[in-house]
Amino acid sequence: MSSQLTEINISRFAGLKIIPALMFCAFLLVFLWSLNGAGISLRELITGIPNMGVIASEMVPPATDRVWPMFKSLVTTVQMALVGTVIGVVLSIPFAIFAARNTTPSIVVYSAARGLISLFRTVPDIAWALFFVASVGLGPFAGTLALVVDTIGFCGRFFAESLEETDPGPNQALQTLGAKPLDRIICCQIPMALPGMINASLFALEKAVRSSVILGLVGAGGIGVELAVSMEMFRYDQAMTIILMIFVLVVSVEQLSAFARKSILDSGK
Amino acid sequence: MSVNVLEKELPPQSEAVFQEKSTVVSVRNLSVSFKKQPVFNDISFDIFQGEVVAILGSNGAGKSTLLKSLVKLVDVNQGSIECLTHSVTGLRNKKLRKFRSQIGFVFQKHQLVPRLTALSNVLHGSLASSGFKSWFHWMAPSPQRIKALQALDSVGLKSKALQSADSLSGGQSQRVAIARTLMQNPSIIFADEPAASLDPKAGNEIMELLTRLCRSRQTTTLFVTHNLEHALQYADRVLGIKNGELLIDESVSALTVDELKELF
What we know:
The complex is a heterodimer of chains A (269) and B (264).
Chain A: H1 2-8, H2 18-37, H3 42-59, H4 67-99, H5 107-122, H6 125-136, H7 140-164, H8 168-176, H9 181-215, H10 223-232, H11 236-267
Helix pairs in contact in A: 3-11, 4-5, 4-7, 4-9, 4-10, 4-11, 5-7, 6-7, 7-9, 8-9, 9-11, 10-11
Chain B: H1 12-20, E1 23-34, E2 37-48, E3 52-56, H2 63-70, E4 78-83, E5 86-87, H3 93-101, E6 103-106, H4 118-123, H5 127-130, H6 142-154, H7 170-183, E7 188-192, H8 200-216, E8 220-225, H9 228-234, E9 237-242, E10 245-251, H10 257-261
Parallel strand pairs in B: 3-8, 3-9, 6-7, 7-8
Antiparallel strand pairs in B: 1-2, 1-4, 4-5, 9-10
């Protein structure tokens, strides 16, 4: 009986795969090591709770004394985001054409375009803002330039992927009737990739609105400058007004973007 | 069944007809293989001006590959293709585009650009000659738009001109694809199973329309099909392929249904 059981029994580790198990162990070790580096401290969290309460109480009621200058900064933020996104989206199109396998003229151009897009995307927008503030000075122009570069990094990649995902059939049909590569890209591949490109552009606009708030913290113009000044002056009531304004702006842009996305994509069906 | 058109004795009537007409496609000893697997081997035939020829065979026989090799959508391993005085296998870039602009190609799945209107898709037929003016219907000069509308009218779809291509039925889409081909003013039309993705009624209508338009314009036409009725009803001559070999090259009047069934 005992030998029969041994024969039909299966080891509990039989289905275990070594490489995934080792990867999971490595992840656990890295996470524990990161916990130490992240400075996680329950004691500091508990002692900080009264301070959070004080700041939160000072935020209410929100200040209304500087609403008009804050509103003007908010408008500047919207302008920066809009201009930065539009210029970025327009510049992303040639980048994407060069960076998509089915539209690029050569592997060298493809590699160069992919490399530049990766550089624009991987360097954080705040780093680009610091670079442009140092280059062209404080103000919204530096922020707009940072948003342009950030949008190219975001849209360039997604536009290229949209182009690569297009059905090759219609393109082959136009190739068979003697159309040049540029003609095929403009009147066949871009129209087919358009839903994905519109989607990416509207996400880029939402992203740019959120980014443009942060960029102000390093002097790149907009409502972020007002927020930084209020926090430095311990005017938490003014900071609260700005946070509420940012909240309304971001939610409005997201709603408008969702509406525009639905209207544009449905109208093409 | 005879294999090579050059070695074959043609029926007296066909011989008389072919002698008067010039050769527009001449294929000699053509072989194509994918990953060392031969698709077809050592195929030779001629197509004459104004003929409507069917390439008949079962699925996987190599019919579509043969048709695509004629416009260099598929690279050949061996042999030569002369088409409209061009040596097709040696064409590249600009010369290849110029050659292709003279050839109309109708695909099995119409291959229209979705989201664009039927009219814009028809205008694409003149992309090779007009470039950016044919990108979209709103950019095209009036004479060109009128020509595209006439092409749509000839396939019975003028009323659908501004309808998006992806909102058309399969049959309507194939009609628009035929109109796009007509817009090219092609010297030859190649059609790769133009009725295969359609129901029998729509398929018959498409074959009827395509061959009627080609005959009225005296455009040489080569169509691929696995439908015996279509081959016998709409073609002048049948090229029968089985297992990558050309088994039949005969005028329709000399063929019986039983002979064609041997291909399957």
